[in-house]
Amino acid sequence: xxxxxxxxxxxxxxxxxxxxxxxxxxxxxxxxxxxxxxxxxxxxxxxxxxxxxxxxxxxxxxxxxxxxxxxxxxxxxxxxxxxxxxxxxxxxxxxxxxxxxxxxxxxxxxxxxxxxxxxxxxxxxxxxxxxxxxxxxxxxxxxxxxxxxxxxxxxxxxxxxxxxxxxxxxxxxxx
Length: 175
Prior knowledge:
Blueprint: E1 4-9, H1 15-29, E2 32-39, H2 59-93, E3 98-104, H3 107-117, E4 122-126, H4 132-138, H5 141-148, E5 152-156
Parallel strand pairs: 1-2, 1-4, 2-3, 4-5
């Protein structure tokens, strides 16, 4: 079975589901977990359009904007660290030895490098479901990890199950 599970989380809607699945697997296999969050200043929601156009008409406005961006970036980093601490405490309370790390960089590469250095038996990563042109243009962390990780990889779609729109008219019968 697995002894060390690396769980890559991106703080999306699906992250709690991915965490829950990883926690269940870690409990079942009596494995320890490493939670990983990778910040990238070149990806949403972190990117700021001011950096795409460094020459502005008003240089002092640019400096002020950069200062505001840096303050927002520091707050984002701290918020994400607090989130990771919370998940770690949840896992520890559930009886799973857990640690966490947060870093800045290219998510796919960071995941694979940490899996190698930690060393993980399994990587659990979410999948956004991008295909076609959007995957080509925006890239796919899960696809990168699947093709470059030295250990086993589980990708979790993380979509919520479909709901029935009108349950008032639905009848269940049994014979």
